[in-house]
Amino acid sequence: MAAAVKGYMIVNLVPEGWEIIYQQAHALLAAQIAFEWRPTDRPERWVETLAAIAQHDDGQRFWAGKIGLTPAGAPANFTVLPFSMEQARQVLYEAGFQGRWRSLLTSMHLSFLYEELRGKNKTTDAFLDEQKENQARWRKELKVNKQKAQQAYDLMQWCDRFSLILCRSQLPEAERTLPGGIFG
């Protein structure tokens, strides 16, 4: 029996089988991209922002049995796995050990990812409402306005998306441009 592994994964089909990239590795690549950001355009809480980017996928469930597998038994790409409230809460819980700024950006990321589920389940709706309340409280405690927090999150989201494009081998062909994100 295989040992349990922690975390969701990116699965790319290759001629030899599958290329597996763990979410934590993708998040580290996102942080490496952010690390190269122009110093003049970095958020004020730069180190904490890098930590949030590098660890935005921490807190994943351990795989055991069929968790992380398709019905056919193949590795499941993270995009086909259902929403897990337990996992979302764990991601936010782990962010809390590194402070309110990381918690704020992580909460904003969870809101971005799961707001589309609003209206489908009362528990999910309550979780999403809780995130909005947390975000307002953390901004107040950190003495940062919504715009500054959003600018930092926009960087996090852009680096996350760029890393996913690279990890999923989704580079455009024929020198087409990548999605604009914070570049407009």
What is the compact description of this entry?
The chain is mainly alpha-helical. Helices cover 49% and strands 9% of the residues. It has one domain (19-179).
Task: List its salient traits.
single chain; 184 residues; mainly alpha; two-stranded antiparallel ribbon; two-stranded antiparallel sheet; 6 helices; disordered N terminus
Main β sheet profile: 2 strands, antiparallel
Portion in strands:
5-15%
Give the ordered list of helices and strands: EEEHHEHHHH
**Overall mean confidence score, pLDDT:** 83
Structure description:
- By secondary structure, this protein is mainly α.
- It has one domain.
- It is built from six helices and four strands.
- The protein has helices at residues 23-35, 46-54, 85-95, 100-114, 122-142, 146-167, and strands at residues 5-6, 9-14, 17-22, 62-63.
- It has a two-stranded antiparallel ribbon with strand order 1-4.
- A hairpin with a 2-residue loop joins strand 2 (9-14) and strand 3 (17-22).
- Residues 1-6 have low confidence and may be disordered.
